Automatic annotation (TrEMBL):
This is Aspartate racemase. Pfam families: Asp_Glu_race (PF01177). One of its GO terms (molecular function) is aspartate racemase activity. InterPro entries: Asp/Glu/hydantoin_racemase, Asp/Glu_race. It comes from the Eukaryota. Its EC number is 5.1.1.13. The keyword Membrane does not apply. It is an enzyme of class 5 (isomerase). Keywords: Isomerase. It comes from Opuntia streptacantha (Prickly pear cactus).
Length: 145
């Protein structure tokens, strides 16, 4: 996904894959099921996923997750390669005709704001979408105590 756009698919959903192909495949399965249940064809989509990003995310997780013996060091971790990688994928999907972008991997949303800068199409934020759905369903947060 790093070169020029070979394919152009107008009005497509752009999908940036993440650390695991599982979340991406799960998203695609739900997307196709949802559309087929409604009696419609699956909307066009472009998928951009690579092993380099997966490796960068695994390094990030190892450096930011505390264990029994170490403290989290995410503040010392250079996020620049991850943000640059995600930004290249975003640009590739925009050039390919995507009209919105999604990131099924929850970890990628840590850099949502960074990669959204300069984007010509909306990048859906998983947390904001869930919060909106909960609000529309009139679900209230649980109170503890």
């Amino acid at each position: 996904c790093s070169g020029g756009s070979v394919l152009y698919q107008a009005n497509a959903i752009g999908i940036i894959g993440g650390a695991s192909i599982d979340s991406t495949l799960n998203f695609l399965q739900r997307l196709t099921q949802w559309r087929s249940e409604a009696g419609k064809d699956c909307p066009p989509f472009l998928l951009c996923s690579d092993t380099q990003l997966r490796e960068e995310l695994l390094v990030y997780e190892r450096n930011s997750s505390p264990s029994l013996y170490t403290q989290a060091t995410s503040s010392h971790f250079d996020h620049t390669p991850i943000v640059e990688n995600l930004s290249r994928k975003r640009e590739y999907l925009e050039r390919g005709g995507s009209r919105c972008l999604v990131m099924p991997c929850h970890l990628l949303h840590l850099w949502h704001e960074d990669i959204s800068n300069g984007c010509s199409v909306p990048i859906l934020h998983m947390g904001e979408c869930v919060a909106k759905e909960l609000k529309e369903a009139k679900l209230k947060p649980l109170e503890t105590g």
